[in-house]
Amino acid sequence: MPDRPIDQEVERITSDLIADRRYFHQHPELGFQEENTARVVAERLRALDLEVQTGVAKTGVVGVLRGARPGRTVLLRADMDALPIEEENDVPYRSQNPGVMHACGHDAHTAILLGVARILAGMRAEIAGTVKFAFQPAEELVSGAKPMIEAGVMENPRVDACFGLHVWQDLPVGVIGVRSGPLMASGDHFHAVVRGRSAHAAQPHLGIDATLVACQAVVALQSLVSREVDPLQAAVVTVGQLHAGTAHNIIAGQAEFAGTVRTFDADVRRQLSERVPALIRAVAAVMGATAEVEYRFGVPATVNDPAMTAIVRAAASEVVGAEHVVEATPTMGSEDMSFFLEAAPGCYFFAGSRNDGAGKTGGHHHPRFDIDEQVLPIGVETLVRATLAYLGQPA
Ligand code: NI
Fold first, then answer.
1. Which are the catalytic amino acids?
2. DSSP code for 264
3. What is the pLDDT of residue 1?
4. pLDDT for res 93
């Protein structure tokens, strides 16, 4: 057992958590450019006497804490990257990097995980098992988690469970949102090129109108969710781009469009990955055109394991009280924590960070995004308690 109860340990470091978060907020870096952030993180982890690996998936950092006794291995993940947004908050810790801003709260995630490492490092003698701290690059590009896993972060020792959190402006500070099963959607995308035949606008019979073919295909795509996907399953097919033609009086010989597909269910994901290209090609063929469709799998759905979710729910209840632990509302947004959750059972959860009274109401990715920093100690204590509970250590 630690010298002091966990909540007192967390209280003792809260001013440092705030200072760290503000430092990272002032020095935001875009995905795969988190060099200063990674340097600071690595220095801190080394100072805690952790085994530290840098340059994992370019700018990622992994710290390994080995407890005094053998046991299971748990991975805790934080993302470190910022967004290409000019900050509009007038606060002393405003971004000093023009055009770049921590507008999603990854500065808080980094500070929280450093705090968790500090507290658990202080309890090393009592810990049975291993804790891996994964500081991930490029979540906003949804491309940092996968290369970390490919670089071996889930091995040596093999990770048995994983936890992570996101500060969440849809929930007030002091509330924690937890959900078993799918929490965030898979995100895949497609790009189609339709080839018809150009002609004078006044002679449509001599051409094959690629614009019309593309429009028919876009309309037909809307029938997939409404007619082919099980109505009890969630899915989105959105075409966000369509480009065709060069002049108002020429029939376009080529058109291109691109879109995104979101689902919670792996079978629905597979179904749409087959049906989207097939439908586009068929519509083109029936109109005498051809279509090439490139379909790319992005991130899987973020799916929480029931047993791991129960651990987080219990930990969160100890921190904020069971009455402030709510069922998280799933979102069709995507998050590459999903790759860790695919590799090991775990739980990703939302820690409320909005404060209406204090004007901390800006949403994620907004130039006025800002959090109530009281979420920092709440996040630390919840992750510490969940980790200890998983490792079989009474907190
Ligand atoms: Ni985020």
1. 81, 139
2. S
3. 47
4. 97
